[in-house]
C-alpha cells in the first residue's frame, strides 16, 4: 500500500505541476465532438421534412439531412423545393468551478445558417447570420460554475437576411442545415490576449500585432520563436503595454530560419506571453511560416521572390455521408491526394474551410486562395463586414494563404474589399474570381489562346480560378496538357484552378441511401464522391509533374541518358531520388510472371527552371527487355511519377507470338455460293465472297460470335473483287475495292492470311473519310455480343481509357479489368471504366462467358476500342465523344472530349478533330493510305 500511495502521490504531483505550468493558457471544453468522426449526441427537434415534429437526438457536429432530418435541396432548387426547416438543439453541460471569474466564450466554428443561442434560458447575443464562419459569445455571466447548464440553439437552414441566402444558399452546390462544425467553451483570464496576427517574412523579419483585453498599462509582452520540436530560434523579444492601448506591436528578426513554400513547408511556433508583476498572466502560441507574397503588376505572383504558376484545384468541404461536416483526417486525405497529383495550390470554393484544412495545407504544403462566400450574388455590407472580420481574423496566420477571394462569379461586394487589408497584417491581395480586378484576369472557362489583347494575350496577370470543368469524364486531364503548356509559356499567366476536386454526391437518407449528384450539377470531380480515382487523376499527375522528361523513343543507340526539365519552383532535382525497372512480359495465355530487374540512379543537379540529363546505368542485356520504367521520388519519399518507355515494339511481340504458335496442321478451304470456309488448324473461318468480311468463327468447342468486320468506322466502301492465293504455309484472300480518282470509297484493300496454327492475319489499306477535312475517328470495327464479355487482359497503355486530348496518365504494361458499364461520375462507380478507347495496343485477350480469344497488332499506335460507353440521362454533346458502329474496333485516330463549357476544338490543339493529308502521287493509292495489320487467335486452348 505504501508503494501505491507514493506512486499516486507522484502522479498527482505531476498533474498539479502540469496544470500550473499551463494554467495561463486558454482552456477549452468541447460541448460537441471535435469533428464528424467523433460527434456528441445532443437533443434535437426538426420543424419540417423528414423525421420532424418530435424531440430526438442528433450527433453534433453534423448536417441534419445526413442524419435523416429535414429536406435535401441543391442550391439551384426552386423556392417551393427548398427546405426551410429549422433545427432546435438542447444540450446540458457542466462549467468547471475554477472557471468562475474568468472570461468564458462559447464558440461555434460553423452553423448553417441563422443561429440563435441561449444559455440557461437567456440570449447569449445577437443571431449570427452566415454559415461558414467562426463566431463566439461571451457567456461568463450566464454560466453556473460547478453546476449543470442548459444550452439551447435554434438554427434556421435559410436566413432571414436575403443577401445571405443569395450569397450562399442559392448556389451551385448542395445546401445543408445544422451545426456542422465543433462547438466549445474557451476560458481565459479576465486580462488576456484576445488574438495575435503575425507577418513573418522570407527574410526573417517578424511583426506581430497583439490584441489585448483589459490591459492596465503595467504589463509587458514577450515573444519567442520555436521550431516544432520546441527548440528556441532566435532571441526573445518584447514590448511594453501602454495604458489604454488594446493593440501592441512586437517586432524581431529571426536569423537562420528556413522559409515556407509548398515544396519545403517549414513551420515554426511563436509563443506570446502577457506578463504582469513578473508573472505570466496569459500565453498564446501560433504556428507560422516565414514567407513573402508579392503581386507584381502586369507580371505575376511571387512567393519568396520566386514567380509562381499555380497548379491548383477547387475544393468543396464535402463527404457523401457527412455533407459539409468534416474532420482533420478528411483534410489530410484531401491534401495528400492533391499533392499526389503534383498540385501546389487549392482554392476554397466557395467559402472558408475548416481550420484544420488550412493547418494541413500549412504542414504538407499547398498555396491557398481563401474565399468569402458569394455565388453570383454578394452579402450586404452590414452582414458581409462581420463575416470578413470573422474569416480573416481566424485565418490570418496561415502561411499557406497567399490571396483572398471576395465572393465568386459576380458575388462581389466592393465595399468589403478594403476590410481584408484592415484585418490582415500581411496585406495579401484580394481577387474577384471570374472578373478582371486588382490586376488579375480570373475569368472562368475561357478558350485556349482566348482573346486579342486580352486574357492570355493581354497585360493582366491571367489566372482562371476555374477552368476545364470536369463534368462526367470531360475536362481536367482532357485539354490540360495544352492549357498548361500555354500557361507555362506566357509570362503573365499565373496558372489556374481546375473545377473540381471531387464529385459532390450525397447519400440520400430519404432515398434508400442512394448517392445523388443532382443530375449533371455535381459530378464534376477528378475523384468520385468517395474519392475514387478517375482517369484524369493520373493524367494530371503526369502533366503537372515537376520532373518533366522529354518524349524520346528508346532506340538501339540508347545510352541510358534521359533528358529532364526541372519544373519545380524551389527544389533542385538533386534533392529527389530516381529509380528504374526493366520488365519482360509473358505472352498471352502464358503462366509465366513478369520478369524484372531494378536499379537506382544518381539524382542530377538541375536547378529549378533548368534542363539536364538523368543517367541510368542499365545492364548490358537491357535491349532484351520489353519496357523501361523510371520513377522520380520527392524528398519526402512520395512518388512524383513513373514513366514507361517501350523497348520492344508491337512487331517484335507479334514475332514472338507467331513463333510460339507454329504448327504443322493442314490448311484447307471450301466454298459455297456466299462464303469461303478456311480450315486453319482447329479453327474454321467463314469469309463473305461479296465483301471479304468475317462472317463466322468456329473451333472444336463451338462458335465464337466475333464477326462483321473489317467494317470501316467511317466512310464508303465499294467492293470490287476477292482473290484467293494458296501457298504451302498459308492461304490468302485479297479483297479489293474501287480506286478510281472520282471514287469516294475509303477502303482500298485488305488481305486475310490464314496459318496452319489457326492464327489469322488481316492487313488493311484505307484512307480517312475525307481528304483535307477533319474527322472524328479512323479504323475498322467488328461485332461481338457485349453480354458475353467478362473482362479484358491486354498489353498496351492503361489501365484507363484515353481521348485524343487526354493521352497522359497511362503506362505501358499488362493490364486487366473486368467488364463494367460505368458512366463516369454516375453511381454505381467502378473505375477504371471498361468501355472506351485504349492506347498503344500490342495484344488483348477478350475474356468471355463462352470462349475467350486474342487479338494483336504489329502496327504501332493502334487504339483498342471496347464498345460504346453508356451516357447519363442528360447528355451533353461536348462530353459525349463520337464512337463508331460495331462493338470492338481497331483505331488509328480517336476523338477528343470537351467540357460542359467548351467544345474540344476550343480547348487547344489536341482537342481538334483528326486530319489526314498525304502528298504522295495520286495514282499510287498504297502510298496515300493508312495501313494496319491485325492478328487473331481463336484457338480453344486459350
From TrEMBL:
Coiled coil feature spans: none
Domain Glycoside hydrolase family 2 catalytic: 293-419
Occurrences of domain Glycosyl hydrolases family 2 sugar binding (ranges): 56-189
GO terms for biological process, alphabetical: lactose catabolic process
Signal peptide (UniProt feature, chain positions): 1-23
Enzyme Commission identifier(s): 3.2.1.23
GO molecular function: beta-galactosidase activity; carbohydrate binding
Subunit structure: Monomer.
Cellular component annotations (GO), alphabetically ordered: beta-galactosidase complex
Domain of life of the native organism: Bacteria
Keywords from the named record: Calcium, Glycosidase, Hydrolase, Signal
Catalytic activity reported: Hydrolysis of terminal non-reducing beta-D-galactose residues in beta-D-galactosides
Beta galactosidase small chain/ domain segment(s): 736-857
The protein's required cofactors: Ca(2+)
Enzyme class: hydrolase
Protein name: beta-galactosidase
All copies of domain Glycoside hydrolase family 2 immunoglobulin-like beta-sandwich, residue ranges: 192-291
Organism: Gaoshiqia sediminis
